[in-house]
Amino acid sequence: MRIKDPNERSFYEIESDKNNWSLRELQRQYDSALYTRLSLSKNKEEILQFAEKGQIIEKPKDLIKDPYILEFLGLSEKPDYSENDLESELIDKLEHFLLELGNGFTFAGRQQRITFEEKHFYIDLVFYNRILKCFVLIDVKIGELRHQDIGQMQMYVNYYDREKRLEDENKTIGIILCQDKSEALVQYTLPENNEQIFASKYFTVLPSKEDFINILNSDNGKIS
């Protein structure tokens, strides 16, 4: 692959070896601008570490991407599908979704029911990350993120921390996948020291090069 930036090229070489990517998967990760997406919230020194060591996951924010590229689902760009449809497609293509999520993820379940005071709630997708040693809860939303969605995820995370997490495990992480979001809404709904709940946009088609540049240069292209 002809990658002019030596740091970016080194990153893909290390990640290909570490994750045993096929040529096709390497091409997909490059086309989806993995290096650029992971670099969004990093300073210059941290980006240089990508070239030397690849992706190092030490804290929750290290494994969060924004946006996530779900073009492997084969869904149209327009939202003529339901949240259940999207969730089902993700499960049907679980191997691809795990590769998009990143290192260390294992699938734990879907539509996990939690119950208290005779009320039932269902978490869309539950994963466990072996590197961070914690549960990762994912909620899939069609349309724009609402503050109620963040509150709901906070409840899920609190429940897992208090009822499911073992003493030697780290705090639960919650990821809300949405088609659009207000950075101000996310900022003021979550506490300032938030390290557990993240909202990330997703795309069901691979953006064009021009669209990608606009996304990555906009406020919506920053990790919350």
Automatic annotation (TrEMBL):
Residue intervals of the YhcG PDDEXK nuclease domain: 62-210
Pfam families for the chain: YhcG_C
GO molecular function, one term: nucleic acid binding
This protein's name: PDDEXK nuclease domain-containing protein
